[in-house]
Amino acid sequence: MKPIPSGRLVSTHVVRLATRKRATRQLVQVFKALQGDHTHPFAHEIYRKVHKKLPRISLATVYRNLHSLVEGGKIRTLLLGDQVARYDPETSEHDHFICERCGRVSDLFLRRARRIDLTSLARDGYVVTTHNVTVYGMCRVCAARRRTSRPLRPVARKS
Ligand SMILES: [Zn+2]
Ligand SMILES: [Zn+2]
Predict the structure, then answer these.
(1) Distance from C-alpha of 37 to C-alpha of 66, rounded to nearest angstrom
(2) pLDDT, position 5
(3) CA of 98, nearest ligand number
(4) Per the count of CB atoms within 10 A, which of 85, 113, 149, 154 is most buried?
């Protein structure tokens, strides 16, 4: 027979289990919030979504969970012109299109027919892990809008 743990031990164990359960639930909700979301949201946008399901979750916890999902290769993070991390449930190699009018970021699956020659980088001592293409222009919605109405003033590009 197993020794019966003291009451204190039991409660610590229960608390620890509950904490772990909560942590798992939080991680799952953060992961779920990103699934099917191809807008490449920022952490605070994901937080707003998760917060509806788990009202007690903090932004810091959302950040921590996003970080461990990135570490585990479950999601990807990307830094575009704004230098604030966006999160991406699409983990395969892909590129992005940024609309200069509305700021929408779309996934691009370009056929990489011609490879960019990066051998000069290696010669200069760089170690290349990956590279991707960011295409700028106007998304379909903005392009269609421009065709049907008078031209809008383009949004100022942040430098
Ligand atoms: Zn647009
Ligand atoms: Zn993407």
Answers:
(1) 14
(2) 56
(3) 1
(4) 85
pTM recorded for the entire structure: 0.73
Give the CATH number of the domain where residue 155 resides: 3.30.1490.190
CA of 107 from ligand 1 middle (Å) equals 13
Using the predicted structure, report yes or no on whether residue 35 has a pLDDT greater than 90.
yes
Q: How far is the CA of 89 from the centre of ligand 2 (A)?
A: 7
Ligand 1 centroid distance, CA of 98 (Å): 8
Same domain as 99, residue 159: yes
Quick check: 53 and 44 in contact, CB under 8 A?
no
| HSE-up (13 A, CA, CB side) for residue 23 | 9
**Per-residue pLDDT reduced to its tens digit, 121-148:** 989 999 887 778 899 999 999 999 988 7
C-alpha 74 to ligand 2 mean position (Å): 13
Residues 6 and 73 in one domain: yes
